[in-house]
Design brief:
alpha+beta; about 220 residues; elongated; binds zinc ion; two-stranded antiparallel sheet; about 35% helix; 5-stranded mixed beta sheet
Length: about 220
C-alpha cells in the first residue's frame, strides 16, 4: 500500500439510490392511448396505415429504454473478487457507451461514461460496471445526477478507497431543438475518496482518459 492510500479520508456521501421509486404503472392500453394523443398533437392521424402499429411499438420501445427502473444497480456489484494479488493501483474502465433520456424533454442523451476506482480489497468484473451504467442510464435522467449515482453506488457497495466517474454526453434536446447546437458535449464528474483528496491520483485517472486536470473542476 502506498502513501496515497494511508492519507485517504472519506468524504461524507449521501447513500446511493437503490431501486428507483415506483409510482403506479398505468395499463399498457393507457400508455398506447397516450402515444396516439401525442401523434395527434404532432399533427398526424394515428389511424392512418403507417401509424396504426406505432402506439404498440412505441410502448414496447419504452420498456427497453426505461428498463433501468426494474433493476437494482447494487445487484451488479455484489459479486466481487478478492484475489487481487496485491494490486493497489487504480482500475479504469473507459468509453462505456450509454443511451439515456433527459427528464426535461424525454430526448436522448448519448454519451460515454468513464469509471475509475482504487480497490480496497475487492474488485468487480468489468462488465458489471458497464451494466451499472446502463441501469442508471435506462431511466429518465439529468447527467449530473446520473454521474453522482454511479459513483455513489460503487462507493457504497464496493467500499473502495476512491471512485471517479466522468460522463461525456450530447443532449438531443439541445441539438435537435431549442438552441440547435450540434457537436456540443457536456462533461460531468464525481470524485470521491482519494480521487477527491489527492490531485495526483485524480490526474492519473484523467490522463488515462486523455483529459487535462483543468477540464474537470473538483471542489475540495
Ligand atoms: Zn432536455
Amino acid at each position: 500500500m502506498n502513501k496515497v492510500i494511508k492519507l485517504h479520508r472519506r468524504a461524507a456521501r449521501r447513500p446511493a439510490g437503490r431501486m428507483a421509486p415506483k409510482p403506479d404503472r398505468p395499463p399498457r392500453s393507457e400508455a398506447e392511448n397516450a402515444v396516439r394523443t401525442l401523434i395527434r398533437w404532432a399533427g398526424d392521424d394515428p389511424d392512418r396505415e403507417g401509424l396504426r402499429g406505432t402506439p404498440a411499438r412505441a410502448v414496447r420501445a419504452y420498456e427497453e429504454w426505461f428498463a433501468g427502473y426494474n433493476e437494482d444497480p447494487r445487484d451488479y456489484l455484489k459479486r466481487t473478487f478478492e484475489e487481487v494479488a496485491g494490486y493497489d493501483e487504480i482500475v479504469v474502465l473507459r468509453d462505456i457507451r450509454f443511451e439515456s433520456y433527459c427528464e426535461h424533454h424525454l430526448a436522448p442523451i448519448i454519451g460515454r461514461a468513464h469509471i475509475g476506482y482504487l480497490p480496497r480489497t475487492r474488485v468487480v468484473g468489468i462488465s458489471k460496471l458497464a451494466r451499472l451504467v446502463d441501469v442508471y442510464a435506462k431511466r429518465l435522467q439529468i447527467q449530473e445526477r446520473m454521474t453522482a449515482e454511479i459513483a455513489g453506488c460503487i462507493e457504497s457497495v464496493l467500499k473502495p478507497l476512491g471512485v471517479a466517474v466522468v460522463v461525456e454526453a450530447a443532449h438531443q434536446c439541445m441539438t435537435t431543438r431549442g438552441v440547435h447546437k450540434s457537436g456540443v458535449t457536456m462533461v460531468t464528474s464525481r470524485m470521491l475518496g482519494v480521487f477527491r483528496t489527492h490531485p495526483e491520483t485524480r490526474n492519473e485517472f484523467l490522463a488515462a482518459l486523455n483529459l487535462k486536470p483543468r477540464d474537470i473542476s473538483v471542489e475540495s
